[in-house]
Each structure stands twice: as C-alpha cells, then as structure tokens.
Specification:
Elements: E1 12-17, E2 20-30, E3 36-40, E4 46-50, E5 56-59, E6 63-64, E7 69-70
Antiparallel strand pairs: 1-2, 1-5, 2-3, 3-4, 6-7
Length: 72
C-alpha cells in the first residue's frame, strides 16, 4: 500500500523531486482512492498532486503550531 492512500486531511507533507523539496504544506483533501491530494501551503495556495506526478512524499514535517502549517 502506498503512503498516498493513507493520507488524511490535516496531515503535514513534503513533496520532493530528485532529492529537492518542491512543496510543503497540509493536506486539505484527497480523492477516495488516495491517488490525488490537495495541499495548502504557508501562503494559503492550494495545489493538486497526483501519485503519478513522480514526487517523493514524506509525512510529518515540522509544523507551525499557531497556523497548523509547516515551518519554511
């Protein structure tokens, strides 16, 4: 089972490509099959990511407790 399918709204995630962090934020929503997620970043931008986009996904990055968003 992929980590993507276990994500829930509120999970803090980091998405990287080829070892470089490209996006960090909080999962806002996901499709029922878990293959697509929407992530809100620190600037309140909402982005869609799909499991086939090629990102390495890490869950549990450090968060800003006041905002509930990752520290950048």
């Amino acid at each position: 089972m992929s980590i993507w399918t276990s994500l829930e709204p509120g999970d803090v995630v980091t998405l990287s490509l080829q070892g470089y962090e490209h996006h960090r934020g909080t999962v806002d929503d996901r499709t029922a099959d878990g293959r697509t997620i929407w992530v809100i970043d620190r600037l309140e931008g909402r982005r869609l990511f799909h499991i086939d986009d090629g990102y390495d996904l890490r869950v549990g990055a450090t968060t800003d407790a006041a905002a509930g968003l990752p520290v950048t």
